[in-house]
Amino acid sequence: MTLQSFWIGIDDTDSPETMCTTWLGARLINTLIKNRYRVEQARLIRLNPTIPHRTRGNAAIAIKASGDPDLAFDLACLLVDRYADLGCDKTHPGVVVSDNQLPADFYFQAVTSVCTISQAEEILTEYGRVWKGYKLGRGLIGATAAVASVLPDYTWELLTYRDEKLWADPRNVDQSSIFTADEVTTPHTWDSVDHTQKSVVCIPHTPDPVLFGIRGDSPYAVSRASSCIRSEPVALEQIWLTNQGTDAHLLPGKIGALVDGCSYRVPGTVTAKPETKRGGHVSLQVTDDDEKLQCMAFEPTKEFRQSVRALIPGDEILAVGSYLAETLNLEKFYLAPGNLPSITKAPVCPTCMKQMTSAGTGKGYKCRRCGLRTQDPDIIQESRTITPGWYEVPPCARRHLGRPLIRGPGYTRTY
Ligand code: ATP
Fold this sequence. Notes:
By secondary structure, this protein is α+β, with helices and mostly antiparallel strands. The protein has four domains: 4-148, Alpha-Beta Plaits; 155-242, Glycinamide Ribonucleotide Synthetase, Chain A, domain 4, CATH 3.90.600; 250-338 and 384-398, CATH 2.40.50.1010; 342-381, no CATH class. The protein has helices at residues 21-34, 69-83, 104-112, 117-127, 139-148, 175-185, 219-227, 304-309; strands spanning 4-11, 38-46, 59-67, 94-98, 130-133, 155-161, 189-190, 193-194, 199-200, 210-216, 236-242, 250-252, 263-270, 275-276, 282-287, 292-297, 316-324, 327-335, 342-345, 357-358, 365-366, 373-374, 378-381, 389-392. Helix 1 packs across helix 2 (69-83) and helix 3 (104-112) packs across helix 5. Residues 11-14, 20-21, 47-48, 51, 53-60, 92, 110, 114-115, 138-139, 141-142 line the site of adenosine-5'-triphosphate.
């Protein structure tokens, strides 16, 4: 067998009813290992979270291995033929094999913006080895982007998968053991549970192969957490290197120059008190002096809305989220220090300890009892319910790509 290093990418094998491309990737890794390939890396790559054709979290996978690349391609296609939900009109798989990583620009475009199938095919024609698009072949976009991915920042996810016969059945996982796993491994793992909602968030509710997923900063941390979890038997398990939790989808943004379907960090000043709309959604308007931007914290972001409601006119913030239908859907924000509004009041007379009264417009204050005069009012700083810093949505509302603050803000330049 030729022993050659190569990359294989797969995407768009699932449907809302069944399957998951990461499961197919994990199956392929097992098959490659059984066939004496050396598997060097397994990547779970999330792409632009606003893409309308996505089934769930817009994931694709890429595997780096050594062995015969053409046989690996055939083995991957056999798995897609057998398991992809090809009957679903939304499922259009793509399988890509390349001797080298594909150009990083394509990954950056796919994680932040929109790509076309023909752009993927052009790259594959120039740099790829062998590829196959099923049906419309849209999965070639994600498969190509996964093989093109570069990870200046990365995290890990351990995914456990269920026996095929159980996919449609309720999952059997001891929820309290997940809280234990979180306690034992925090802050090295995150988003297994949501403490404020007192709920488990690492078990999907969809009829697919995933039993649970543990996200963390190292393979050791996610394995340690997983070892605490009591559940039905795990049929298959894979630790993925991933761009999840890195904010890879965010672009620097300027109010008035945002593109629909892209996600941004946008500086702006709050113009008015945030308003709570029907359904509990909170709306916030910010400006950069020239133009205005409508931001929303939707009801599913739960207690995050309290932080948004605490903003006041004049606050300088860095708003972070996806821009859709002329609205920035907030994922987090940074409140800059400095906006401490104050009110002025007539001072108290230091001799009589009585409140002085106005002596007339521009004439300062006078004590009615002893006649003492002063120009200076008392300045009282208004108390705030929010302090400068970062505020984020809770785990139950977090995007796969969203960087949780437990990892540090990851972004120090705020303006
Ligand atoms: P799966 O688990 O199968 O990966 P998913 O929720 O990740 O499910 P897909 O079923 O893969 O979603 O659907 C996403 C589709 O959108 C894929 O065909 C993918 O190639 C395509 N796609 C991903 N990112 C982009 C992008 N930036 N521009 C255009 N198409 C994209």
